[in-house]
Amino acid sequence: MPSNQPMADENKEPAAPASAAALQPRPPRQKEPNPGKTADTLGDKGRRRFVFHSMAAFITLLLVCFARFFFPRTLFEPKTRFTIGYPGDYGFGVDTKWQQKFRIWVCRNASGLFVIYARCTHLGCTPDWKPAENKFKCPCHGSGFDSEGMNYEGPAPKPMLRCHLEIDPTGQILVDTLNLYDFDTGTKQFKDLQPGTSGPLLVV
Ligand code: FES
């Protein structure tokens, strides 16, 4: 039986496409200000900066340590053979002008000229010359030495050592602090004592 009903679906116009406005690209949404998020971003930046600086400092330290390998670990010590001028430059008594540079005192008495190595024979401190008391006094444990370096008080067990001396070709006194003379308690003399133009005592 033919249907009286109109062929609604067949005659119907196809569904209209979505409106043109709906297909238009949407304008970007304006971000709404978010105070909480802004604070987080600032915090992140601060953290990033901190990490960056920490790493930069660490790398710099590593580079410095690495560069240190290219420099010799040399100990710069004073010369052990040197001249100190002419015998006529030194009068009687104790001259301390070379104490800082060479750790020596230049002394002259009636016997001649000699050089004391400024090292206490107790534990190696450098004594002070006390002109008012005419003695060397060690600040560490109180040892005392007379003007010739002979111990007479405190724990120092023996006199201070004397340096080898020579007169060089120019007439100056040459001091050798690697060649030291020890006091011989048997002979009561500094070992190898040969007064002359070389040895622990210069007769000049
Ligand atoms: S080091 Fe001089 S008294 Fe001890």
Compile the SSE list and pairings.
Elements (H helix, E strand, L loop, with lengths): L7 H4 L8 H4 L11 H34 L12 E3 L9 E3 L3 H4 L1 E5 L4 E5 L10 E3 L4 E3 L6 E3 L4 E3 L8 E6 L5 E9 L1 E2 L4 E2 L7 E2 L5
Antiparallel strand pairs: 1-10, 2-3, 3-4, 5-6, 6-7, 7-8, 9-10, 9-13, 11-12
The structure holds FE2/S2 (inorganic) cluster.
The number of helices is: 4
CATH class of the domain at 82-199: Mainly Beta
What Rg do the Cα atoms give?
A: 46 Å
**Quaternary status:** single chain
Low-confidence stretches: 1-10
Beta-strand percent range: 15-25%
The CATH superfamily title of the domain at 82-199: Rieske [2Fe-2S] iron-sulphur domain
The shape is: elongated
The separation of the N and C termini measures 157 Å
CATH architecture of the domain at 82-199: 3-layer Sandwich
Cross-sheet strand order for the largest sheet: 1-10-9-13
What is the string of helix and strand elements? Answer: HHHEEHEEEEEEEEEEE
Secondary-structure class: alpha+beta
User: Which percent range fits the helix content?
Assistant: 10-25%
> What's the count of strands?
13
What fold name goes in the CATH topology slot of the domain at 82-199? Rieske Iron-sulfur Protein
Largest sheet data? 4 strands, antiparallel
Bound molecules: FE2/S2 (inorganic) cluster
Give the overall average pLDDT. 83
Structural notes for this entry:
This protein is of the alpha+beta class. It has a domain at 82-199: Rieske [2Fe-2S] iron-sulphur domain (Rieske Iron-sulfur Protein), CATH 2.102.10.10. Helix content is 23%, strand content 24%. It is built from 4 helices and 13 strands. It has helices at 8-11, 20-23, 35-68, 99-102; strands spanning 81-83, 93-95, 104-108, 113-117, 128-130, 135-137, 144-146, 151-153, 162-167, 173-181, 183-184, 189-190, 198-199. The strands form 4 sheets. The chain has a 4-stranded antiparallel beta sheet, with no helix packed on it. The protein has a 4-stranded antiparallel beta sheet with strand order 5-6-7-8, with no helix packed on it. A 3-stranded antiparallel beta sheet has the order 2-3-4. Bound molecules: FE2/S2 (inorganic) cluster.
